[in-house]
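#onboarding

Welcome to the new folks! Below is a worked example of what a typical request in this channel looks like: someone posts a single protein sequence, and someone else replies with the predicted structure as tokens. Don't worry about understanding the tokens yet, we'll cover that in week two.

Example request:
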Amino acid sequence: MSRSLPAVTDEQGIILAKKYAAPQICRIPVKKLTTAAEILLLKIHVITGWVVPASKLLSILSDQFAKKLAEDYGMLNTEEIEYAFRKSGTTIQDWGKEMNLNLLDQVLLPYLNLRLAASATEEQIKRKPTTQRIFSDEEILNERRGDLEAAYQCMRNGRLPVMFDYFNDILIMDGFITEAAEQADFFVKALNENREALYVKEI
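Example response:
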């Protein structure tokens, strides 16, 4: 008997639509992220009515919010963040305090849990329960090359990516390096040369 697939709720449908509506925070260049954070803070002020700090403090808050987004919410995008505050930001009591990171966390942390649940449902629906597909060695290698490319793009945008053990094997196999110890130097050189990508997708 085949397993029935879970259904996406209306709320999960909105979350999944927002998930793909804009580039992730981790893909926004560092120089543009503070500006994006400041715009988000002003929109959050309009949505929630929370007090925005005076000009100088707003600049500091924007800088700290940008760092907070990069460190804890890099997988989200600006569309999701706006939606999270429209959905539940108006129910959070600020007790007259000026906007701060703790107040922002009270909306974004619960949203992350909702997003994880929606993504889990999405993954279950994508899988075919009655059939299993065995990936070829070449498909697995290409998937790993994609992970390697994503990590390099994070570096180009000033982010610290997740580094998988198999990156060395791929780099050696594809002739980028000859031994594992050369990996760090390879990335430094590629970044210094402003190389746009490690792999070019064939059309």
